Amino acid sequence: MPFAPLLVFAKRYPTLTVVAGHLLLLAAITSALYAFGIIRYLPGNDNLMHLDVYWYDKIRQEGYSYSTTTTSSVAFFPLLPYLWRATGLTMAGMSVLNFSMFLAAFAWLAHQLRLPARLSLLLLSTPVLVFMAIPYTEALFFLFGTCLLLGLHRGQLGWWAIGLFGCGLTRTASLMFVPVLVFTVLLWAAQPGQARRALRWGGVGLLAIGAAVGIVAYMQWQQVGDPLAFTKVQKFWNNHLRWPDYPFVTPAGIDMLWLDALALCLGCGAVGVCGWLAVRWLQQRRRPLPVVPPMVLFAVGYYALLVVYIASHQGGSVWNLSRYMLASPFFVVLVWYLYTLPAWPGRTYAWLLLPALAVWQLFGAFSQEFDNFTWGQSAWYFGLLSVYLFAYLMLRQLPWRREIIMLLYVFNLVMQLHLMDALLQGYVIQ
């Protein structure tokens, strides 16, 4: 049989086979859409300098700069630009390196979690993963986030520490890991016989985060004279504590709003789960606390804190929310965990969609305030979004689930390529 070696490889290395198959399908669909003129641009050195790439490139070439009156590069953490400088790669070369790191981290995570092939393909097609293929921090954050999650999953304290340290050097969002870590440790320690271990891991985690933030502060103190510059400059990026406005919006427009709305829905769900777990933690003397894997606790806690931060600091804008939530290993872990839970009764899923309808209303979905749409157009838009969400929730129970997963996979891939095309033309899609 001419394909016998390939079949042997696929059986021995199923995760690598899925990733390779995804790359082939991605290349084929990209070639077809480009040939037919549906997408007009492919990544290159001449069209990648957009949005945050400008700031990472500036740090790579010049180091940090700071202004007390306007935006400046100290808002960004150093690992990506300094890695870029060390490799000497071009902009396109750094994009290839980022995409390679992401694929390696995803393959590692999928292998350790034993993700089914179809579920792996679906997760690989998540539209906002487009940011893995440009000089952004998403790939490094995914890599180190995978380390910390698998450290919790496999009981490897070293992976946990490396993951937290690497995330702390990569992105300012890692500052939120401190309350998330405390939340995880408290619930983990409440499980029988886990208190000492949870406290030890919590202490190591705090040291790793503190070391990373300390290095960033020292670098900025040496270069701009202020160790807390990365916190002070946030107000010039319009990130400051305030009440959110109604309706919620995103500067990226309709192309990203559905993804940001889905991320907001997931974040609100995470807030509800964290609140429920906190109540059960307070009641643990009367009834036992549900046993939830520590890595799932960390992922849920991160999602909850992130959505609270965005809602309280961006004035009703959900800009970047889907990028921070869906282009992360925390999304993979949560989808995996939901997929492994026992099947819920069908009526439960119907009730799960009711909170989603409330989230859609935050965008003015059922009023005249949504993006100049008529009421009917708005209802249709968010109705389709509800169907999309329902398909994910019902992955294990829907008839023809294999066909539905593949349909979602192809749709997501086309959207991924559309977003890349828009980004390369300079449109805001964060």
From TrEMBL:
Q: In terms of domain of life, where is this protein from? A: Bacteria
UniProtKB keywords: Membrane, Transmembrane, Transmembrane helix
Which regions span the lipid bilayer?
Answer: 20-42, 63-84, 90-109, 121-152, 158-189, 201-221, 256-279, 291-312, 324-341, 348-366, 378-395, 407-429
Q: Does the keyword DNA repair apply?
A: no
Magnesium as a keyword?
no
Q: What is this protein called?
A: Uncharacterized protein
**Species the sequence originates in:** Hymenobacter cyanobacteriorum
Taxonomic lineage is: Bacteria, Pseudomonadati, Bacteroidota, Cytophagia, Cytophagales
